[in-house]
Amino acid sequence: METVVLDVTGMKCGGCESAVKQTLEDLNGIEKVVPNHKLNKVEIAYSTATIDITQIKQAIEELGYKVQSN
Ligand SMILES: [Cu+2]
Question: 7 with 68: CB under 8 angstroms?
Fold first, then answer.
């Protein structure tokens, strides 16, 4: 299990947080998702054996939010 904190812009409210949380938690290998639209962060605990970070970033961007590369 690995935990990352991604910088994600475009989330404006609790509804955005819920969308990110639900979409990611539906993916195999995602254990826990804690979005914070005020800080523009999404904390994600996931299994590196099941899903990789590229797929996670892609799922967020498909929702219309932007993952900042760092
Ligand atoms: Cu919103």
Answer: yes
Give the bridge partners for 42, in sequence order. Answer: 6, 35
Region 6-35: mean pLDDT is: 98
Supply the CATH number for residue 31's domain. Answer: 3.30.70.100
Please give the residue range of the domain that contains residue 9.
2-67
The band of 69, judged by pLDDT with boundaries at 50, 70 and 90, is: confident
What is the number of structural domains in the chain? 1
Distance 52 CA to ligand 1 centre (A): 26
Separation of CA 8 and ligand 1 centre (Å): 13
Q: What is the pLDDT of residue 40?
A: 98
